[in-house]
Specification:
single chain; alpha/beta; Rossmann fold; 2 domains; 14 helices
Length: 353
């Protein structure tokens, strides 16, 4: 039986990489504050910030945490003027500050749906008016995408070492090949190449790595950044608007730029397979692809390598709840049959606490 290994952001996080979206938003705002302190103002496509009442504030030269940023903005609220030029970025920033967590791709789709609903309710004067709003949203999203790549390049350049627990996992599950006909595909949803730390030790030629969402600094495999839930009830409605601008950042169209998706599809069509989940959140932004995987007749088993928070707490149940959203309503029984129970599952990394 073949093995499909899903590599998600939790894999990078296990290696100490700050690859959460809130890490990116914090980095971006830190740079803005440094420019503000040096020049008295900062302005770009997304927002602008300046001093009011002629006061100049010295900010820490080092990067600050989200908690510290929140404290600075509250303490100096009477001396700082902030104007958001991009509605989406305002949402991303506020959620980062309030929740210390944000999903850029999901927020983009929510914003796009809100624009569609306004069109449906005739809240805009005419179609041209709302299409201009969608185009503006996409332009801003493209700018965010460029900045995200800039940030991730700084993260990618940091030194990374193997994690002993993960190295042991690779040794136990992938290094030894009892069946010469078993194929392995590492379906990497990350833009980073952390997975490469372990691939050099796989001596056999039965594995392949698929950077399904693109790879940093690789023009032949461009970054796919957007939303991938064509099952959502609003997707068909948005598609029926008959405006390509609405579909600009759906992942399905990005998949057509390379052979990655076809290679993935060929792999799951080839023979029966089992799925290993290593650090993937299984969220809705990849729903179309995950639905194709879990409901495929060749998918025989799903094994979750969960995140162990403490010796008594883990995210196994949350992972299964996220996975459940990728099974159609009449297929929930199959879900219970093919997901390995917690008693047969293992953590990706053992808890140090």
């Amino acid at each position: 039986m073949n093995k499909l290994i899903l590599i998600g952001n939790g894999f990078d996080l296990a290696h100490g990489l700050k690859t959460k979206y809130n890490d990116f938003i914090l980095w971006y705002f830190n740079n803005a504050l440094k420019n503000l302190a040096a020049k008295g103002e900062f302005s770009d496509q997304l927002f602008e910030i300046s001093f009011s009442q002629g006061r100049i504030i010295k900010f820490p030269s080092r990067s600050i945490s989200i908690t510290q940023l929140k404290e600075i903005l509250e303490h100096y609220k009477d001396f700082l003027k902030i104007r958001f030029k991009c509605g989406l970025f305002k949402i991303l920033f506020n959620k980062t500050i309030e929740l210390n967590w944000v999903d850029v791709e999901s927020e983009y789709y929510s914003y796009l749906k809100d624009l569609y609903i306004k069109l449906e309710n005739r809240s805009f004067k005419n179609f041209k008016n709302i299409e201009e709003h969608v185009k503006s949203l996409n332009n801003d999203f493209e700018f965010i995408k460029i900045k995200l790549q800039e940030y991730l390049n700084t993260v990618e350049s940091a030194k990374k070492d193997q994690i002993p627990d993960i190295a042991e996992h690779f040794k136990n599950h992938y290094s030894k090949v009892p069946n010469p006909h078993t194929l392995y595909m590492f379906l990497n949803f990350n833009y980073t190449s952390t997975i490469d730390l372990y691939l050099k030790e796989l001596k056999h030629k039965q594995f392949m790595v698929n950077y399904i969402h693109g790879k940093l600094k690789d023009e032949t495999n461009p970054i796919i950044f957007g939303y991938g839930d064509e099952i959502d009830s609003y997707y068909q409605k948005i598609e029926n608007v008959n405006s390509n601008e609405y579909l600009k950042n759906f992942k399905s169209f990005g998949y057509l730029l390379t052979k990655n998706y076809q290679n993935f599809s060929g792999f799951i069509e080839n023979d029966s397979f089992e799925v290993y989940i290593l650090g993937h959140s299984c969220g809705l932004s990849d729903r179309t692809m995950l639905n194709k995987i879990v409901e495929h007749n060749n998918c025989k088993r799903i094994k979750i390598f969960y995140y162990k928070r403490t010796n008594t707490e883990n995210d196994y149940i949350e992972k299964t709840q996220e996975l459940s959203r990728h099974f159609s309503p009449d297929n929930k029984g199959r879900m219970r049959d093919i997901i390995e129970p917690l008693s047969n599952s293992l953590p990706l990394v053992k808890c140090k606490a």
